[in-house]
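Researcher: Watch the backbone:
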Amino acid sequence: MRALAEAYKSKQERLEEEEEYFKTMESENNSTPKNTESKEETLEIPLKKRKFWDNFSTIHAKTGFKIFFMPLRLLTYGILVIGILILIRHQLFNITAFFSGLVFANIFVILGIALRK
């Protein structure tokens, strides 16, 4: 959780720095009036691309790999896979029940988090 909070914090700081940078660029462009409409259009396109690709930084990738390979989480995944294989072997595995259970469990978790706040 701390790693996620730090990753989110760094992303927020990066977005604030980008906004400040583009504000200064916009003020410099406004001080020398040339073809302002075309400059504003060219600034908007890279800004959208930059915000999208910032989500794929190495910091986020490292944090994601660390969280994925936590021992308790790997143990849980192993138990889930072994349980599914046992149910398949005994012909007791019902795919629709499994996926509906996953969907409803996620909905209850999200509602619990939303109601807590």
